[in-house]
Amino acid sequence: MSSSANEFVARVKRANPSLVAGAVKRRVQSGLARRGYLVSRIDDEGRKYFEVSHEGDVPLPAGAEEALRADNPRLAELVEQYNALTYPSAVPTQWNDSFLKKNLSLAWFRGDNAYVWQLRLFTGGAKTRNYLAMLDIESRDKLGLFKKLKEDGLFGAFTFTFGDRVVSRDLLDSINEINYLDSQIGLSDMAAPTVLDIGAGYGRLAWRMDEALPNLGAYDCTDGVPVSTFLCEYHLGFRKVSDSVRVVPLSEIDTLRDSYTVAVNVHSFSEQSHASIKWWLGEIAKRDIGWLLIVPNTYGELLSTEVGGTREDFMPSVLAAGYELADHRTVYQNDDMREMIGLHDEFFLFKKAD
């Protein structure tokens, strides 16, 4: 290009700054592409993979919007009770008011939020990845729970339909966890197995296990976060679970049973301080609890969340509470599928030492 032509182009760009911006954008995109990156503007659907959201296709049931409000008297009562406690478990390091404001919508508590990451977990290709997860879990579904448990998409859960089967992260995780516990402990063969769920959230696993195991003797849900206890009470009441399921507020921790078959903690200890975890382990140790299942947020390690975001290894604390590691494996068993699913969560199953 001649010097006069260059001067003409320069004048045009000065007259229209958008041309300059466009040229810079193309150069940046070209440079990133050579390094293996593609940059593009995400649409409304794509934003769901990066933001707290919920599926609104299934309307809220009657009365839900009125009950699931921040000014609900029962929620206020629980908050007051929890604030009066001096237990380390009542002092959140992650689940504080600021975190909840950003990561939870009360009425849509089964959406993609603080309790269950759904679309954000996969950052793209959620339907394909959930399909692969379904195939992996189905290969071990000896209890036939895919035929027994259903997903209705209520309260904002994102669902995926494969043939005549509707699934969600809630459903898939629950089927996987129940089958895993049954394969390791034999829950379905026991006369009346009992479960203590620490960090029960909105009662996901309690609801599913109550439907899955007709022989369930007792299932107690407890949580160190008052809004979780509030949602658990509401949700399990809405689901009309059996009398064997109970919600135990942290302020009533002394009403827990003296013994349980197993205590479960799914993605909860990882979001608490080490002091809180040791307090819970003390509550476990003082009771006759044969097994302890922990599903952490971190791969290969059991790490807490401290004030300021630092982490501490709490495996020694579990062992000091009188437990030994009995089984450790990834939640998805097929190596090839696990890589394509892109999720590497693990089961840590501990047995009470003799």
Question: How would you explain this protein's 3D organization?
Answer:
The chain has helices at residues 3-15, 17-34, 44-47, 64-67, 73-83, 97-103, 126-138, 145-148, 169-185, 204-212, 226-238, 274-285, 315-320, 335-341; strands at 160-162, 165-167, 194-198, 218-222, 245-247, 259-266, 288-295, 323-330, 346-352. It is globular and about 55 Å long. It is α/β, with parallel strands linked by helices and 354 residues long. The chain contains 14 helices and 9 strands. α7 (126-138) runs parallel beside α9 and α7 runs antiparallel to α14 (335-341). The strands form 2 sheets. Strands 5-4-3-6-7-9-8 form a 7-stranded mixed sheet, sandwiched between helices. α12 links the parallel β6 (259-266) and β7 (288-295). Helix content is 39%, strand content 14%. The chain has 2 domains: 3-34; 64-352, 3-Layer(aba) Sandwich (Rossmann fold), CATH 3.40.50. InterPro entries: SAM-dependent_MTases_sf (IPR029063). This is Sugar O-methyltransferase.
